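Morning. Coffee machine broken again, so started the prediction first thing and wrote up yesterday's gels while waiting. Chain of 300 residues, entered below exactly as on the submission form.
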Amino acid sequence: MVWKRFWKRPDPEPDAGGEPQPEREPAPAAGRELPAHLARQVERRPAGTDGDPNAARRQIAAMERQRLAMLYDIEQGELAVAGDNPWKDRIDLLSQAMETVTDDLKTLKQAPPGPFFPLPATPIVIDEVVTDPAASVRFTIGTETFAYVEERDWAERGHQMIRTELIRRAGEPAPLVPGGVPGDLREPLLRHLTDSLFVFASDLRDRTLDGEPLPDAATLADLGRPCPRCGGWTDWRGTCQVCASRAAEAAALKREERRLLDERASEAEEQHRLAERLPLARRRLRDLDARIATLSSSDT
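Came back before lunch.
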């Protein structure tokens, strides 16, 4: 049958004598063993040096460069465990700087009261507050009339895009400074009044925009009430610039204190790491010296 012929293995072809030939075993590869002293040298020879007499020298040179790096690590480690080392010096300097920052914070907390001189209760007459299309505010204090306007910032289609800060167009704060103010307080009070007048005008505009009633019976004294914390002047909204300045200075000192603390911790961590790795670096150097000696002897 066909399927029997398909699965049946063919008989070996007979040779010339008519007898089938037995299967031959593959002959072993010819070769001879190396002498013992040559075999040991081959085993000691590094990989990649066969056929290149300069490869061992290049590898030795690379190991020598690696040895220099290890010597530097060992030198740094020995320096780190020494009693007098640069890490300790830097840590001491950072600690001194932190003490200075701490003293500055204490001094800031014990700062003297802010400058203050009472202002008269001169009535403030609100003349006009306009919000459309651009805001403008006008009020009178004594004989001085102040006018603040808002510069227009137009969008592409002719509508005002954003509200900008008010700009004083009329009125001078200097005449509002009382005559009995000491000479060293006149300039600080003038700066405070200039800022507080701007805050008052901005508050009038914002109240009108929000549909809130305007203040009744506002006086010049309301523009410079004493601060309950430092005793200095506060503006129309109760903000004390002296306290705000001291708070900003304290925040800057706190940031500097954190920076010094992190830097000191980094120095201590680096010193500990170098000292901890010193035994390992010495052991690696001994191993590398042994490898260099082995390569040097095999190269010669």
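Residues 124-226 form one domain. Going to sketch it on the whiteboard this afternoon.
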